[in-house]
Amino acid sequence: MKKFLTLAMLASFAVAAHAADAPNTLAKIKSSKSITLAYAQNAAPFSFDDTKTFSPAGFSISLCEGIVAQIQRQLGLDALKINWVAGTTPERLAMVAEGKADMECGVTTNTLKRQEKVDFSTVTFLQTGALLVRADGGVKKAADLAGKKLSVVAGTTTERRVTEALASAKIAAEVVPFKDREDAFKALEDGKVQALAGDRIVLVGLVARDSSRTRFALLDQDFSLEPYAFALRRGDPDFRLAVNRALAVTYRSGAIASVFDRWFAPFKPSDVLIAVYGLNSMEE
Q1: Does the pTM of the predicted model rise above 0.85?
Q2: Residue 47 in contact with residue 106, Cβ under 8 Å?
Q3: Taking the domains of the chain in order of start, what are their residue ranges?
Q4: Cα distance between residue 157 and residue 105, in whole Å
Q5: Which CATH number applies to 24-124+229-279?
């Protein structure tokens, strides 16, 4: 009996120690009256630096600002300061995992491998992986990439999935990784590569930079499906619930429609994306 009591006490101490080590993001936010959000600087129209306002902007940023407003109300704060921290996808995920950022607001695909290090909100967007090519590059379909080069942002799911898709189709193209999307796009502009792999709607934003609308073309073929979500620290269910509750309010109220139109008009959400928002607009 004495031995049993000792084991029970040790177990209770272990549970208490684990609870003490678990992150309490909401308490930290309430105490500091601030929240730190990691974002992408050049992933328009989702997350980018607005040169007019000198602040982050985009679809993901608007959703995150809505989440912050909901959390502010939940915590009963008069004000809640946002500290924005820029980084690439691997950098943003590392910041969240290490507690240097409370949440990230970029173009991050939720994968099981990434869930080993971070948690995720409900899905915020569904995207497909596509290829942007030079109009004069002779690439009309993916098979035409044989013997050619395509650029991609290093450390993204796109890098892995386009490599797998090319291998599966037995297309001998060279995948050239770059640190960020700007460098990858410049390589395409300069003719150093013949294609750029990325998320379709982000590539649409890059095409929009060409006033002539004749220099680039998007191939019709897609090579992946990318469910975007916001990365959060693991082991903090209360904060994840607060984030998902805020997103549910945005979806349920219909506010998501105006956010979408602001950043993607004249494009309309697909039937699948509308269904995703419906599924995640759960009631209290």
Answers
A1: no
A2: yes
A3: 24-124+229-279, 128-225
A4: 16
A5: 3.40.190.10
